[in-house]
Amino acid sequence: MVKVTYLYHSGFAVELDEYVLIFDYSTPEDFIPFIPKEKQLILFFSHKHQDHFQLKTLEWAEKISKNTYYFVGNDIKLNEKYLERKGIAPDILSRMVRMKGSETYQDAKKDFEIETLRSTDQGVAFLVRIGDISIYHAGDLNHWYWEEEPKSWNEQMEKAYQTEIDKIAGREFDIAFVVLDPRLESGYLYGMDYFLQKVPAKNIFPMHMWEDYDVIKRYKQTGTGKRFAERIREVSEQNREFLLRV
Description:
Layout lengths: L1 E7 L2 E5 L3 E5 L16 E6 L9 H10 L4 E5 L6 H6 L10 E4 L4 E4 L4 E7 L5 E7 L2 E5 L13 H16 L6 E7 L10 H9 L2 E7 L6 H6 L3 H5 L13 E4 L2
């Protein structure tokens, strides 16, 4: 069994037999998720926007374990002097891997592989394989459609998003965290639709909803949403847990 916990916004914890993976954890509260001491903690931050990355997450992660690993989008720039000013031991940098789009990190000893796609906003999307488990976390990779933007801008955004998703078309994931942002009004479903039509995923978790969780029910009534409704998990409150057979 794999346990997935929705933390907040785009933040999720995935608990495996030997690891706990935390993606884009950012919260207005001081909630610290429970991490079993015997499990390796790995944190992922797709980019520097405050709704995806906060220094206080590094602080509590280091209190839990001085052996925590970090994978971060390459727009997150941290150096020793800055960390020291913020009260964070700079040796954290020796356990931090900065990644740009279309990169791969492999650790044969620990049997995991991290790949990235280039975001259509900032940073990266993560593709994670640990043992037999495969996970996709979009970060801010999405078909961002804003009605107030020129038609040419929206068309370029559509092309950029589809180019990245096409790189993983047909590749199956056990868990996929995908943007479903109600602020986009009529375009809220474009990114999710294209992902589901191109990329097989057993368990789909909408995210980046700004606590407007009703958007999931609305999406599941759309054409593509109905086709994949049984796989779409209804995130409805902070710290909700999902036990998955994958």
